[in-house]
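Input.
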Amino acid sequence: MLDLTRLRVLVAVARTGSVTAAAEALHYAQPSVSHHLARLESEVGVVLVRRAGRGVMLTDAGRLLVARAEEILGQVESAQEELAAHAGLATGRVRLAAFPSALATLVPSAAALLAADHPGVELALTEAEPPEALTALRNAEVDAALIFDHDDPVPGDRRNTTVTPLLEEPVYVVTPEGASWDGERLDLATYAGENWIAGCERCRTHLSSLCARAGFAPRITFETDDYVAVQALVAAGLGVGVLPGLALRAHRHPGVRADRLPADRRRVSLVIYGRPPAALPVQSFAAALRAVTEGTDLSGP
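Output.
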């Protein structure tokens, strides 16, 4: 059985890079930190740290155990918070990681519903793209993650999680206002020779997949995850791009045209760690979010 105190010591050593700094961070005596490390290595039967100059470095086994220790300690903290809130929803907290366009559209309405029904529950928000949100969830830095997937699932460890689908949003090709093509017969190949604006590596991969199906490789000349900036660049005639419905709902530049891509969509889901039921505050926020998404009309940008 791994001792939680020794796991905390190992994580502190990994984060600070030395036994002395870990002792200061934990308010332990330095010999106590060294003792806990030695006992932990004896328990697991492998070397976890090696001296490196004035500090220490993790072995491969040490890095593996630190990654798992962060998950374990995070889940213990979450369990303690859930137990503290078990008596009811008079108090409680929900820490949510969500992608930008959801934070600008779905989340504020859900937060307002939560505040109206459960004024004692605190909602803390963190902006994060889906892979980072899933990592934060696994490390118990957040209680729930709002993510999206295209046809290719977002990278991230979803073991021991519960995924609740919320909505499917349309995807649009965004061109300068006045573009002379028929949106009813949308063909990306029409814009094969244009400059393209793309975001993160995963978003670029999705764009490349769409264009490959249309028979060309996009010439990406601008890279930004900011959907406001994408539309400004398009309106200035510097390129074309692809944006989901929530991004266009959050902000719509008057100088752009949006035509729906009939063969593409983006699925939005809420992810929590563990199996149902979730902690009461998380359940309440999830109910508010479902109410908002059920009433969200995404038939037009």
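The first strand starts at residue 49 and ends at 52.
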